[in-house]
Design goal:
By secondary structure, the protein is of the alpha+beta class. It has two domains: 160 residues, P-loop containing nucleotide triphosphate hydrolases (Rossmann fold); 128 residues, RNA polymerase II/Efflux pump adaptor protein, barrel-sandwich hybrid domain (OB fold (Dihydrolipoamide Acetyltransferase, E2P)). The protein contains ten helices and 20 strands. The strands form four sheets. Strands 6-7-8-3-9-10 form a six-stranded mixed sheet, sandwiched between helices. Strands 13-12-11-14-20 form a five-stranded antiparallel sheet, with no helix packed on it. Strands 15-19-16-17-18 form a five-stranded antiparallel sheet.
Length: 387
């Protein structure tokens, strides 16, 4: 995109403990986008702080790419305001907005060398030849491609091409970097490696970054904050830990990672009834007697021996209400853990999926057909109002 000032020196990265001190760099208020009768975005309010890495996360069709395009000016919103660095950019054309963008398809010019691809934006805004050469050289070093400058895109791997696209987007020193599913076209191993490189590059440059992704692991590993979207709206905004450990809605709990879900009825205080038996649950604000969904993640379920009452004592296994007898129906080895499918009389017909570490499986001799006891920690049994 067009950038009216000279390329600035890279900003110093801001430490995580100073996150709350950052000032808002991008402010979106009351934003809607409609295509005829179809509403793609509804009432979006969001602030992105200076130097922050934010991921828009959600299923296909949730509105995350539409929101990114509205920020870029590629698809003007129907109503609402967008401010960047204090300036109202709501109706500015893309060329007058201060950002660099990287698409899923890289969009490199196949007839230009890597050096020429990176230099393209700088040449367009009339930078001196010597300045362009120096900037291109610095960026090639930064993305680890200093020896590839005279090659053409077709001569590079997919991961290398994506690095070139990043270098080209950063060449004009934009105030905002927009990434539209930049890793989805790469194989799994390259994706894991490149997401680490992108995050390190973003920290080094200190550029405010927004990335669209549908990959939960990608968002959890890269983002300072995640914006979870669904059906054109924002479900929750928070750090990866907040989103994973404290989901505010059943959609967020279900979309981010795996969950066991049980139809339940709210009891008195921090209690819930599942399958006509009582469990202690996390604190909540739902009224007693309400029909709800109780949820617990497979990774939060704690395995014990066949008789945890006598073997360890109730104080060692938390709340006695949450210790249940179970039968191992099936086990699936997934490298770092075993995904275990259990049946439990207290849960009636609802199966329970638990993820046990390989050490726990070996130590407790857990195998298909064995009887065990498992604990559902009170603070990890979450209640959600039915949709």
């Amino acid at each position: 995109m067009k950038h009216a000032t000279a390329p600035a020196e890279p900003a110093m990265p801001v430490s995580a403990n100073r996150q709350s001190e950052r000032r808002p760099f991008l402010e979106i208020s009351g934003l809607w986008k409609a295509y005829g009768d179809f509403v793609a975005l509804r009432d979006i309010d969001l602030q992105v702080k200076e130097g922050e890495f934010v991921c828009f996360l959600g299923p296909s069709g949730c509105g995350k790419t539409t929101l990114l395009r509205a920020i870029a000016g590629l698809d003007i919103q129907s109503r609402g305001a967008i401010r960047q660095a204090g300036q109202d950019i709501s109706r500015l054309p893309p060329a007058q907005r201060d950002y660099g963008i990287v698409f899923q398809s890289y969009a490199l010019f196949p007839n230009l060398t890597i050096e020429k691809n990176i230099a393209f934006g700088l040449e367009n805004i009339g930078r001196p030849r010597r300045e362009i050469a120096s900037r291109v050289s610095d960026l090639l070093d930064l993305v680890g491609l200093s020896s590839q400058g005279r090659k053409y895109p077709a001569q590079l791997s997919g991961g290398q091409q994506q690095r070139v696209a990043l270098a080209r987007a950063m060449a004009i020193s934009p105030g905002l970097l927009l990434l539209d599913e930049p890793l989805s076209a790469l194989d799994a191993k390259v994706r894991v490696h490149l997401r680490h490189e992108i995050k390190e590059l973003q920290r080094k440059l200190g550029v405010t970054t927004i990335m669209v992704t549908h990959d939960q692991e990608e968002a959890l590993s890269m983002a300072d904050r995640i914006v979870v979207m669904n059906q054109g709206g924002i479900e929750q905004v928070g750090t990866p830990t907040e989103i994973y450990r404290h989901p505010r809605t059943l959609f967020v709990a279900d979309f981010i990672g795996e969950t066991n879900q049980f139809p339940a009825t709210v009891g008195k205080g921090a209690q819930v009834e599942i399958g006509h038996t009582r469990f202690a649950c996390a604190e909540h604000l739902l009224p007693a007697g309400a029909a709800v969904v109780a949820a617990v993640r497979p990774a939060d379920i704690i395995p014990h021996g066949a008789d945890a009452h006598r073997a360890t004592g109730l104080e060692a296994v938390g709340n006695a209400d949450n210790l249940i007898d179970a039968h191992v129906e099936d086990m699936e080895f997934l490298g770092m853990f075993w995904r275990t499918r259990l049946s439990a009389p207290r849960l009636k017909e609802t199966p329970l999926v638990a993820d046990f570490s390989t050490n726990a499986v070996r130590r407790l001799c857990i195998e298909i057909g064995s009887a065990i006891q498992v604990e559902i920690p009170q603070e990890r049994l979450l209640l959600f109002a039915k949709a």
